[in-house]
Amino acid sequence: MDSGLKSHLRIAIVAGEASGDLHGAAFIRAIRDLCPGTQVVGIGGERMVQAGCEVFFHASRLAVVGLAEVFPRLRDVVRAFQKMRSYLKDSRPDLLVLIDFPEFNLLLARVAKRYGVPVFYYISPQVWAWRQGRVKTIARVVDLMAVVLPFEEEFYRRHGVRVHYVGHPLLDLVKVHLCRETFLRVVGLPPDCRLLALLPGSRLHEVERLLPAFVGAYERLRSEINGLQALCVRAPEVPMELYAPAFAAGVKVIDGYAYETMAAAEVALLASGTVTLEAAIVGVPMVIAYRLNPLTYFLARRLVRVPYIGLVNLVAGEKVAPELIQEEATAQRLAEEARQILLDEDRARRIRARLAEIKNSLGPGQAAYQAANLALNLASGRR
């Protein structure tokens, strides 16, 4: 530990979604390694709890996609905000750490500034994609931004935000612990099977909208390709009953083993989001699907300013993985895109080689420790 750091810091943290919970947990572990005795409290999920965070409000009650989906959970969002606002006012922690979740977090950052609490933003809101005017708010209320995508540093620096590129934390988190043969034996599949991975998202609405199409695509493909099996990975916060379409089609639904499932698969059908970078790091060719509430999508089309929806494609600067959006995300279209990869070994090999290049562009690793060190220095007033 840096001898200049205060020994008993109090850090408030907010991660409102599953990916934020994953990165928040790694960040908290790094904080505790670098500065034992640090108290971390706030909003997060089960992984952050296990890492030692005292959670005031569980992130699963806040995780939504899009404007229209917010309204059914508005009461929970308001309660969570009030809880954090009261904590900042009454306890005045040494630092507020915000992880993505921009609509909530940027409002909370304003509260922190009002009470003299420094603000550290880890994992940028995608303001470079839509509503870029928010970068002015970030420059005003965020003391230091730690970004994880290669192109973000220049964007924020150009807009007057104090920023550091720390690389992507997934490089340290995405680990395959079982070889293919062992994994397939564990999940009860034959060792010589061809595997299609189904990862329909980490939120209730994503699974409801995407899983039937994913399962339908598998049913089409298995009638054409001998030995094809499918595995569906359940998101921790999504109840098992929402996976009924998979059970009805004879698809195994498993808890955990997401990276082993990807590594064993020839193709993955994925919801858009962080999972596309996880798949790139593992090296599995993928087809990305995205379905929103129609109103949310109508608004998003007029606001979004990037050419791709998949993070893997944004980092690559080209369409490495097919993207099927809204009405295009059907079982037929998913099957067509997956079939082209399953039946063309040369194409699959080229995609895997490009994914390896994308992985190498994400930095040297240890992003959580780099971010934690920056945060601790900020919390200790050593800016």
UniProtKB/TrEMBL annotation:
Protein origin, superkingdom: Bacteria
Entries under NCBIfam families matching the protein: lpxB (TIGR00215)
SUPFAM superfamilies: UDP-Glycosyltransferase/glycogen phosphorylase
Statement: the UniProt record of this protein carries the keyword Glycosyltransferase: yes
Record family assignment: Belongs to the LpxB family.
Gene transcribed to yield this protein: lpxB
Catalytic reaction equation(s): a lipid X + a UDP-2-N,3-O-bis[(3R)-3-hydroxyacyl]-alpha-D-glucosamine = a lipid A disaccharide + UDP + H(+)
Name of the protein described by the UniProt record: Lipid-A-disaccharide synthase
